[in-house]
Design brief:
The chain is α+β, with helices and mostly antiparallel strands and 93 residues long. The chain has 3 helices and 3 strands. β1 and β2 form a beta hairpin. The protein is flat, with a radius of gyration of 18 Å.
Length: 93
């Protein structure tokens, strides 16, 4: 069973991580860049937030890790495969 010391260590670590993360996002916003932030939680969920150039969070979604992997894999296939690229171009038209 974990005790108070373990919980305090985790809390301090998470606070440092969140501070560093916030600083990085602030730098992007200060540079006038829009960005999408993805946070993996455990092995099964990903939290995504779209942040526009003014710093406003415009969209937040929670996805399963399987959906994220599938989306990335599909994007790679479309980029690498000439047939998939042609099909994607036809879909866009």
């Amino acid at each position: 069973m974990s005790g108070k010391k373990s919980v305090d260590k985790v809390s301090k670590g998470l606070t440092s991580l969140i501070d560093e993360f916030s600083s990085a996002v602030k730098e992007m916003v200060n540079a006038g860049e829009a960005t999408v932030v993805e946070l993996a939680v455990g092995s099964s969920r990903v939290i995504k937030a779209a942040i526009n150039a003014t710093g406003e969070v415009t969209k937040i979604t929670v996805e399963t890790a399987g959906n994220v992997v599938n989306t990335v894999a599909t994007g790679v296939v479309k980029t690498v495969s000439p047939k998939a690229r042609k099909a994607a171009n036809k879909e866009e038209e």
